[in-house]
Amino acid sequence: MLGSNSSANVPTADRRSPKRPRRAVTVIATALCMTGVVSLVASCTPPPSDPGSPPTTVTPLPEPPNTFSVLTYNVAGLPQGISSGNPEFNLPLVSPLLNDYDVVLTQEDFDWWTPIAGILDFVNYHTRLRAEVEHPWRTDRHPGPDAVGVDAGARGLLVGDGIGIMSKFPFGPQYVQAWKGCFGGVIPDGGAADCLAMKGFRMVTMTLGDGREVDVYSLHAEAGGTPEDQWLQEEDYADLAAYINSRGSDRAIILGGDTNLHTDDVHPDGGGGADTAIWAKLLAATGLTDVCIELSCPEPGSIDKIAYRSSSTVSLQATGSDFPRERFQVNGADLSDHPPFTATFAWDVPSVG
């Protein structure tokens, strides 16, 4: 089932004090203008659907009680030459490393438009990241702007949301929702070029060993540091909470991704505590528990987060967390400009009485 959000007018009210930009994504706009790409994107078409399908038989899933691991990782998949990393080289190296984790939530494995005159290496990052992945269940490429109610003509260059979910546990059809608004486009405007991608969240319903369900979310939030970006973050997380609650209060949940929320109040990009307030409001509204807060991890203010909750049919408990940087390095160099973040969970059938 697909989301159907429409693009909204960007609010201009200065409702929060300005924050410093979290990432210099505005280089995208400069590079695109220099290469003349902007005038050509309207003729681009999306690549075909992913080849293949999940296998018809898989190893039987373990019965409860049991454990599983979750990885969230922003893989820095902006176009080669624009990305602060080296995705053309790094994504194939990341791919086999994902196999050590039962559930993988990714961000920035962008692709949508076909190559334009060889100017940018930017196509099929989604496929390259999955080339050596062994997870039987994987979300598809982004279904396109029409499916999520985004006006492609109003946005300029569009790519997919760069968001993915891979799992060793079976899951059903994906739900894709784009944020209703964005700030930052092709022409440098102080934003972080968020309008050039259909950012938002994806959700699938994953089935554990004995048929018990967990809703799994992967998200990528508005990244800029302007008052408009701050306001949009508040709106986006309110929409996320509303969607979660629309599915009912008795749903087990694993939620992770690049939140773009610095919840360390002393961080210069934290908006003077505004980011912490947004995250706390989401947790309170949905009954989610932040793994880093619960387990006192060494980097509780990291923007890459995982949260969860149990249900009357699935008992979840976070048992560990880690930022395995060294595993995602080559010769001491990071494979992304974000650290990978992992959590381990024990799950069981809740006791009665």
What this model shows, in words?
There is one protein chain. With 353 residues, the protein is of the alpha+beta class. It has a single domain, classed as Endonuclease/exonuclease/phosphatase (Deoxyribonuclease I, Chain A, 4-Layer Sandwich), CATH 3.60.10.10. The protein is built from 7 helices and 14 strands. It is globular, with a radius of gyration of 19 Å.
- CATH class group: Alpha Beta
Q: What is the helical fraction, as a range of percent?
A: 10-25%
Q: Numbering strands along the chain, what is their spatial order in the largest sheet?
A: 3-4-2-1-14-11
The major β-sheet equals:
6 strands, mixed
The CATH topology is Deoxyribonuclease I, Chain A
CATH-level-4 superfamily name:
Endonuclease/exonuclease/phosphatase
Which SSEs are present, and which pair or pack?
Blueprint: H1 27-35, E1 66-74, H2 87-97, E2 103-107, H3 125-129, E3 137-138, H4 152-155, E4 164-167, E5 175-178, E6 200-207, E7 213-220, H5 227-246, E8 252-258, H6 274-286, E9 289-290, H7 291-295, E10 304-309, E11 315-322, E12 329-330, E13 333-334, E14 341-348
Parallel strand pairs: 1-2, 7-8
Antiparallel strand pairs: 1-14, 2-4, 3-4, 5-6, 6-7, 8-10, 9-10, 11-14, 12-13
Helix pairs in contact: 5-6
Summarize the structure.
It contains 7 helices and 14 strands.
Features:
alpha+beta, 7 helices, disordered N terminus, six-stranded mixed beta sheet, 353 residues, Deoxyribonuclease I, Chain A
